[in-house]
Amino acid sequence: MSEAAVKAGRRGRGGGGAARRAERTAVSIETAKYISRNIPNYEVLDDAALDLIEINAETILAEIGVNFVDNPEALERWKAAGAEIDGERVRIPRGLARKLCSTAPATYTQHARNPERSVVVGGKNLVLAPVYGPPFVRDAEGGRRYATMADFEKFVKLGYMSKWLHHSGGTVCEPTDVAVNKRHLDMLLTHMIYSDKPFMGSVTEPSRAQDSIEMCEILFGKDFVRDNTVMTSLININSPLTFDSIMMGALEVFAKNNQASIISPFIVGGAMAPVTIAGTLTQVYAEVLAGIAYAQIIRPGAPVVFGTFVTSIDMNSGAPTFGTPEASHITYGAGQLARRLGVPYRSAGSFCGSKLPDAQAAYETANSLQMGLLSGVNFMLHACGWLEGGLVASFEKFVMDADQLGTLHQFAKGVDLSENGQAMDAIEEVGPGGHYLGCAHTQANFKSAFWRSDVFDYKPFETWDEEGARDTQMLATARVARMLDTYQQPPLDPEIEARLRAYVADKKASMPDSFT
Fold first, then answer.
1. pLDDT digit string (tens) for 394-436?
2. Separation CA 231–CA 379 (nearest Å)
3. How confident is the model over 447-476, as a mean pLDDT?
4. Are 311 and 264 in contact (CB under 8 A)?
5. Domain count along the chain
6. What does pTM read for this prediction?
7. Does residue 234 lie within any of the structural domains?
8. Least crowded by CB within 10 Å, which of 29, 251, 265, 393?
């Protein structure tokens, strides 16, 4: 037999495999529906412990109080609601904050411009959104550098192309080549045009929150925005116990317009909160109670999320640490408190302190993601791309993490006990001493039976070696390039796009650049 005939024979026998490989590598912009858990939440605290934390949190609010700084209107609102005001200190009588929080909805829908991408936040659901806020980016080719608007656009496109990611996020990286007072316009425009998934608004100044509302009114229609939630945005509390006028001003804009806010303490244990788990949980709960209550003062029924960003501190270097047991205990406990309060819960993410997408990053990220799934998180910001304690958004880690989010979807399904799941027909067909590779049950289920990574290498050593002995970062680099090369912009009414671009251009032209 000639060499050509041998090669032809190999191609013929490999046709089915080649077709399956082509199917796996075909361009896809499929987005999985947000996770609906069919597994129990993991709870670390009993009712007595939760009661104690709630009582102590009420003591903090009533006796120590919280500061609402540079915001006299907020002080007046609190006074009218029944709080005691002493300068900028707000002391909230026992029971008042919880009573105000009672109008907050247990679930809400955030609408996307593509209705198929809309998400329901709360209940047993888990919505996954990408990294938020890093001033630096990293990739294998360019290394660590300040982020640009071009980087931001690439991340939004990658997020749109990522099957397991439900949300486009907000400040996926901080584009430092655009003026501070104008970059929110470009970021919002990018989310609106290059993705059709839900997104977040700007919170860096109240007027920028208002710009977010006005741009959404162009995208969705003014009446639709008035009656529906189209943004879920991050409002950080200056822990310990301080609510600044910038974040509260943005919260006021969003709450007034029925847009959702994540009320989230920013906790580094030992620096912004006590070193103990119970002490941190108590402070977190007090801060969240005050923040959610204030949102309900602005507009009863405004959608809110109980947020918790928690890490500990390395007592030798002062650097934050991630994926630790202490952070897990706090995240699990905060989930229990959120469910008792009756509001959606935000926490966890692809947290790590590593400088590279390496083994440290993988271990810490895996711990953090599983913690988020099992703690009952409903909205997970930073679900992919986080590196170096949140200072860096990594392109390689973005696609590695986004791929691993598929394991959360699969795990959350729980155990299938249907007739097909029991597989008794397969066991009967194969019997003692056989194998299941060719049985009818395997043939009917093999495509969906096991979750499979789109990044990891499962090839035999010889094939892996022949293809360049690529490690996971190298495989991720190739995947980033392929996803960006095959990106296809989701359709948008040209008139709406033109109006959005005109709004951004007019706003930017109306003010000088400011980088402060």
1. 999 999 999 999 999 999 999 999 999 999 999 999 999 999 9
2. 13
3. 94
4. no
5. 1
6. 0.92
7. yes
8. 29
The reported pLDDT for the residue numbered 23 is 45
- Specify if 340 maps to a domain: yes
Q: What are phi and psi of 169, to 5 degrees?
A: 85, -155
Range of the domain at 314: 99-413
Q: Is residue 457 part of a domain?
A: no
Q: β-pairing, 392-394 with 386-387?
A: antiparallel
CB 195 within 8 A of CB 160: yes
Q: What is the CATH number of the domain that holds 232?
A: 3.20.20.480
For residue 6, what pLDDT band results from cuts at 50, 70 and 90? very low
What tokens were used for 455? 């990044």
Q: Which residues of 36-66 are buried (b: 16+ CB within 10 A; e: fewer)?
A: ebeeebbeebeeeebeebbebbbebbbeebb
Contacts of 130 (CB under 8 A, 6+ apart): 155, 159, 165, 167, 168, 169, 172, 381, 382, 383, 384, 385, 398, 402
Q: CB of 347 within 8 A of CB of 335? A: yes
- Alpha carbon distance 33, 405 (integer Å): 12
Q: Is residue 118 part of a domain?
A: yes
- Please report the pLDDT score of residue 12 as a whole number: 36
| Greatest pairwise CA separation for the chain in angstroms | 95
Measure Cα distances from 256 to 78, 93, 134 in Å: 16, 25, 29
